[in-house]
Queue: 2 jobs
Job 1
Amino acid sequence: MVLVTGAGSGIGRATAHLFADEGARVAVTDLDAASADDVAAEVTAAGGDARAWALDVTDAAAVQGVVADVAAWGGGLDVLVNNAGASVGHPIDHDDFEEAWDFGIDLLLTSLTRTIRAALPHLRQAAAGRIVNISSTEGVGGSANIAAYTAAKHGVIGLTRSLAVELGESGITVNAVCPGPIHTGITSAIPEEMKAKFARRTVPVRRYGEPEEIAHGILHLALPASSYITGHALLVDGGMTIKNN
């Protein structure tokens, strides 16, 4: 039984499809109820087993309620994929910086603690509990004008490492995936020629990645065979972070 947050589009949608293709029952959750419904319907039409829930991960009561409903529907919970997020940021001297900072840290970092805390009793009952948190290459580097996003994604990796140590004795692994430039809704507003130019200059494989390529990294970390991998931040970025120039 797999719960994916932010599964109404992009990486979350691809992850829901991939886990269902592998035979998992999937809880598709998203802030946009219609998008969650659409993805669950797609998975079901393809022969998978999925159900949709509307979920605002910044709402602690909603998180508790949805996780409980998901576990009741699925007969427990084996895998939690913390994917929900958005692009958040302003320059440090912008009038709205503090508002953007508070929102970004809550959405991109604090919300993970909410879902993990709600899921933990169920994950402890699983044969091989798995938590996969979505960070970013911003979690190992930095860019101007998006301090909230960058700080939160660094925090996701720190949270992942701390919980890997804390939860190891429970048999639960905790890992992170750090996507590089990916074709998703967040990057859809960037003109294609600018994406191509950026990829040629900075990504060794010279292209943007696809959501399905991130989903395969998530699946790998959730497999029973990956039981000795924990506290790891898996870069799925076409080699971008290792390129010197």
Job 2
Amino acid sequence: MLWLKAFHIIFMVTWFAGLFYLPRLFVYHAQTEDEATSATFKVMERKLMVMTHIGGALTWLFGLALIHMAPVLMATGWLRVKLMFVLALTAYHVWCVYLVKDFAADRNTRSHKWYRWFNEAPALALVIVVILAVTKPF
């Protein structure tokens, strides 16, 4: 079970690396007016999205494996709340997919300031999820 937990944490870090850096790329991409720079951002966003998909999928896989190994955990309040935040992060991830597609098709309509705020959501979720997982308050 400790191996599952270790891999769950490793891929959670990978997933969050993508969720933190991808919106930062959106900030820079929204600021650029240069076509060559925009093309570079499109490649970076597409490649980072692949890594983020892998991290997210394996986070879910190892997390579900942990629950399968100890189904009694589902009766705990802390895990249920944690899973609600993980679902919200998954929705955020999907939203990022659509934003990558918008940038790729030159359809972005949001400002760099909007993306700066958008970039804050996963940080808040990370703090809550880690506190729940470590302290198991209820």
